[in-house]
Amino acid sequence: MDVHLELRRPFQGLHSKRMRMTSGFRWLLATLPLLCLMSQVNGQKRGAPRELKCVTASFQVWDCSWKGHGTLYEVCIEDRSHSCYHLEKANIKIPALPPGDHVITITSLHEFGSSRSKFILSERNVSLIPETPEILNLSADFSTSTLSIKWNDKGSAIPHHSNVIWEIKVLRKKSMELVKLATHSTTLSGRDTFHHWNWTSDMPLECVSHYVRLRSYIDDPHFSGHKEWSDWSPLKNISEIADSPTKVFPQDRVVLVGSDITFCCVSKEKVLSAQIGQTVCPLIHLDGENVAIKIQNISASANSGTNVVFTTEDNIFGTVIFAGYPPDVPQKLNCETHDLREIICSWNPGRPTSLVGPRNTSYTLLESFSGKYVRFKRVEASTNESYQLFFQMLPSQEVYNFTLIAHNPLGWAETTLSVNITERVYPHTPTSFKVKDVNSTAVTLSWRLPGNFAKISLLCQIRINKPNSVQELRNVTIKGVESSSYLVLVDKLNPYTIYTFWIRCSTETFWKWSKWSSEKQHLTTEAIPSKGPDTWREWSSDGRNLIIYWKPLPISEANGKILSYNVSCSSEEGTQSLSEIPDPQHRAEMQLDGHGYIISVVARNSVGSSPPSRIASMEIPHDDLQVEQAVGMGRRILLTWRLDPKMTCDYVIKWCNTSRSEPCLMDWKKVPSTSNATVIESDQFRPGVRYNFFLYGCKNQGYQLLRSIIGYVEELAPTVAPNFTVEETSADSILVKWDDIPVEELRGFLRGYLFYFEKGERDASKMRGLESGRSDIKVKNITDLSQKTLRIADLQGKTSYHLVLRAYTDGGMGPEKSMYVVTKENSVGLIIAILIPVAVAVAVGVVTSILCYRKREWIKETFYPDIPNPENCKALQFQKSVCEGSSALKTLEMNPCTPNNVEVLETRSTIPKIEDTEIISPVAERAAERSDADPENHVVVSYCPPIIEEEIPNPAAEEAGGPAQVIYIDVQSMYQPQAKPEEGPDLDPVPAAGYKPQMRLPVNCAVSATAVEDDLGKTAGYRPQADVNTWNLVSPDSPRSTDSTSELEPEPLVIEPKHPPCSAFQKRAAADTVRRIHARRIPQQLFSVPL
Amino acid sequence: MDLRAGDSWGMLACLCTVLWHLPAVPALNRTGDPGPGPSIQKTYDLTRYLEHQLRSLAGTYLNYLGPPFNEPDFNPPRLGAETLPRATVNLEVWRSLNDKLRLTQNYEAYSHLLCYLRGLNRQAATAELRRSLAHFCTSLQGLLGSIAGVMAALGHPLPQPLPGTEPAWAPGPAHSDFLQKMDDFWLLKELQTWLWRSAKDFNRLKKKVQPPAAAVTLHLEAHGF
């Protein structure tokens, strides 16, 4: 808005006037800011009107207001009619001014005087603010949680066709949380129009208050001024339900699986928990104690729906939600009819909806041409079975256009099918199926097929089964009838045959076969036999009687049950008939005189007789025939022959078992005269049995034997071994002879014999593995079947031979027969065998004798040297003299002794210093070196048990003074190798236990007596490894005596001499002890053994 | 519910027993009067069998209702199931009742419960459940007949059904699904309590009526079911 402030100053007024006159609008704009500033300054100072503002709501009236302190205002608008208004308020409503600038002069009158302000006003300075809208109606559909508002756009007040934008705010809870801000566009039409807006809340409306308000904005393209939003309309609200029997919302809602849903609970008590199914959900607190839970991606419900439960202190509220799927498109919709009266449509429901009971899918089958429909509703939970609907066919309508609509609370789906129903006939199973005879080769079949098939033709299929035959299918086309009864003729059947019939039908425009009817068995009637029986004749062995054989007719030729046979023979003289032969007999015998008869055989059943089969009785003589051999395969044998043009009728092969007696006939076979080969096959053939085959040719009404053949259908190995004997035995050869094997046991054509022989005794070894190619077995293969003997040469005399013979055929080896034969003695060889060893033995003896004689001196030296007499040895004699008187002493006394008491005397005997010895063993030396280091407290156990020896105290020993001269066997053996046993007692007068130094003692009885005088009689035992002369048990010089003297002195030790070692073991053990002591040189402790 | 052969045979045996003994009810057959003893014993046995049968049915049905109804510790307040006959009664009050009153209460209660059960059967969504319910309904019908037989034997008249009672007992469609489930839950619970109470009632009655020595009773082999 351009504003001029005009004070009553000529300058200013002139100036402004001149400017208005001389300049354009642009110039005015340029000066506007300055003027505004001046106007403000002056106005503020003097209370002039300022800040003129104009707004419009309807384009027609501008509502202008300004600021000022006047009590009266004069407002003049300079337009075509210069009009002025006198006002008491700073506000004026003026009609909308035409486009362009308009000068508004507002003069304010106040106590100070007056002040005038000029404003330039155009539409651009006017703000378009629509009138505040009002919500006429706010309604809620609680079942769908939908809010609906209605308001009036008051378009009549606005002349323009303008677009209006409405902004709608939805607030929730008392705290006014904004939940939705939506815009809605409408167009003003110049009339008052009511508008509606709907909004579906995610939260059920029952649980929390919802508030709505709106405002508008008119988007008028013609209006050049400023456009603004209207004020917000007053709030309208939908309150929660305060008191309802139902507490949880929504109730029993059906939703799509996977959708999000909010449940809420209206409660006056505090809700403690909420759960859906088994899942506990976090609570969303609403106003008061109301709560809600939000479920996202809900899963499909069970049959009874999903329970949602809110629990308070002492109550529980709940609802059931049904989450499922909309129905699937019905699959495999198929419509067909069984009877052209009713159409059956079946389909597969597809994916289960998870909705059952009243929410289960309902189906409507609508036929669009007739507009008829049928409904299907299943309350039960759907299984995946096929669904079916029946639709009654309409007369004279063949084409049906079906639409199947599936519907449930979540949606619907449909599928269509158009069918010509006459092409979709699936007839019922034919019933009342019956068979009726027409003649022996034809029957009629009748059945019922319910249905209205008068307008179409049926195609039926007859299945015919005959024993031992392949199944036959015959198709027949029948005109459909109203009466449902059908009849058809089936011919080309065999007489007297059991047939089984089935029937099924379809229509000519094939859709589906009906099921097969139940089977019906039928025996066709008899007819006369079609052929005479196959006949043969044999002359009896005496040539007088002719035996006529015939084979029973096969069922296909008998055409009924054969009751009897008529046999007659005719010659030029006349015909002779035998009486009727009842059926099971297939043989007749006639006495005929001479040949040249024609025999005829006729089979007869209940209907009539067969044509006769004839055979000539005459046997034409034949040349000598060579018996041939033949081998078959399996149970068949192939015979061939050369065609003989003279044979005019036929060939007959007859065969029999060779073992049977004459006349031999097992069976025969007739072959046309044009054939030259046949395969004989019979169940009677057995492998390994020989058969005779005779080929007859027929000419001039007589039969001539052409060939005679023996054969096997299969050759086997012989069952027995040939029986053989030894005819002759010599020193180097054996002659063996064997017999033939009977034909029955041969079981094949004999091909030869195998003869084995080897050296061997009867008991020694059986002939093991003849075929294994052992080198010592000799084999002869005899293929000349006429050969019945065999001579085996180059044998050893007086030797046992093992002979084996076996026969073989092409079927294999027969069993073996063995025999032991000893060849005769060879005398020359025996003599030589005795003489040669004798001669050799004599020669060896002679040579040996000569050699011995010549080397006799050497032999003596070697084997018999002179041995000197130890008696003569001077070197050993000294000892004898020394201990002359002690001969009573024994060294080795093998007395048993038993210790009865052992006393341990602990002593620290002084070890005399070893000073000089004649002999010091290396062991002793080492022991001596170690003696200082060794502690003295070694325990040595005496090996002498306390046996009272009768001989001690031995006065001789005491005299000899030698308890110390105890000698152990080990030591003794070491140092007295030359000593005679007898000398022992001399040397060792005391057989006492104790120590014997490892040295040769210069035993002197006197010296030793003095040396150990003090201890004599008490002490045996230990002696240091020193000269006996140096023995001093209690030597003060001894390094060991210092501390042990006092202890040792009163009782310096030891073992009583009267306790000698008692056995060799004891001695040896004592010697070991001694050695140990030696080694350590420590005589620490000995046991005193009191008696 | 898994209908085992044992259940079917058991029920069959039960029904056969009921039918077999019906002629023996004195009200129906006055000629060879064996007294009410056998029919009370038979009713008692049938009650025990029904208790057993209900255990299996309730398991199946509560599973069908889904959690939390099938949770073992679920014990909701009795909402909206006021029309169901309550089995719970003060011990003193119960003792003060005479035989006729007790039998009448039993008879009325089972008549109503049977109506409810049939309504339940109509709503069940699965064929299997319906079969189980129908099976139980048949048994309960048998019990009702049995109680009627006992009452007749003792010379008590049958309570006259109030006109229009039968359809009114059927649960109304106004119920929400949840309240319906609560009703179903309570129905099963009340049935259980009633059967337990009836067993006590019949046992008491049996001891009272039956001379101890002359008791020749037929025991149903309920443990084999």
Automatic annotation (TrEMBL), chain A:
User: What GO cellular component entries does it have?
Assistant: external side of plasma membrane; receptor complex
Signal peptide annotation: 1-43
Q: Which InterPro entries match?
A: FN3_dom, FN3_sf, Hematopoietin_rcpt_Gp130_CS, Ig-like_fold, LIF-R-like_Ig-like, LIFR_D2, LIFR_N, Type-I_Cytokine_Rcpt
Could you name the domain of life of the organism this protein comes from? Answer: Eukaryota
Which portions of this protein are annotated as coiled-coil regions?
none
Name of the protein this chain belongs to: Leukemia inhibitory factor receptor
The annotated topology with respect to the bilayer is: Single-pass type I membrane protein
Where it sits in the cell: the answer is:
Cell membrane
Q: Supply the SMART domains for this chain.
A: FN3 (SM00060)
Matching PANTHER family, A to Z? Answer: CYTOKINE RECEPTOR, LEUKEMIA INHIBITORY FACTOR RECEPTOR
Q: What is the source species?
A: Oryctolagus cuniculus
Regarding protein family, the annotation reads: Belongs to the type I cytokine receptor family. Type 2 subfamily.
What Gene Ontology biological process does one annotation of this record name?
Answer: positive regulation of cell population proliferation
Provide the residue span(s) of the region labelled Disordered: 1029-1060
From the broadest rank down, the organism's phylogenetic lineage runs: Eukaryota, Metazoa, Chordata, Craniata, Vertebrata
**Subunit comment for this entry?**
Heterodimer composed of LIFR and IL6ST. The heterodimer formed by LIFR and IL6ST interacts with the complex formed by CNTF and CNTFR.
Task: Briefly state the protein's biological role.
Answer: Signal-transducing molecule. May have a common pathway with IL6ST. The soluble form inhibits the biological activity of LIF by blocking its binding to receptors on target cells.
Biased composition of type Low complexity is found at 1035-1045
Q: Where are the transmembrane segments?
A: 828-853
Instruction: Supply one GO molecular-function term.
Output: leukemia inhibitory factor receptor activity
TrEMBL record, chain B:
Query: What SUPFAM superfamilies does the annotation carry?
Result: 4-helical cytokines
Specify whether Nucleotide-binding is a keyword of the entry.
Answer: no
**What start and end residues bound the annotated signal peptide?**
1-27
Write one Gene Ontology MF term: cytokine activity
Transmembrane stretches, by residue range? none
Location in the cell reads:
Secreted
InterPro entries from the UniProt entry: 4_helix_cytokine-like_core, PRF/CT
This protein's assembly is summarised as: Forms a heteromeric complex with cardiotrophin-like cytokine CRLF1/CLF-1; the CRLF1-CLCF1 complex is a ligand for the ciliary neurotrophic factor receptor/CNTFR. The CRLF1-CLCF1 heterodimer binds SORL1 (via N-terminal ectodomain); within this complex, the interaction is mediated predominantly by the CRLF1 moiety. The tripartite signaling complex formed by CRLF1, CLCF1 and CNTFR also binds SORL1.
The protein's name: Cardiotrophin-like cytokine factor 1
For this protein's source organism, the top of the classification is: Eukaryota, Metazoa, Chordata, Craniata, Vertebrata
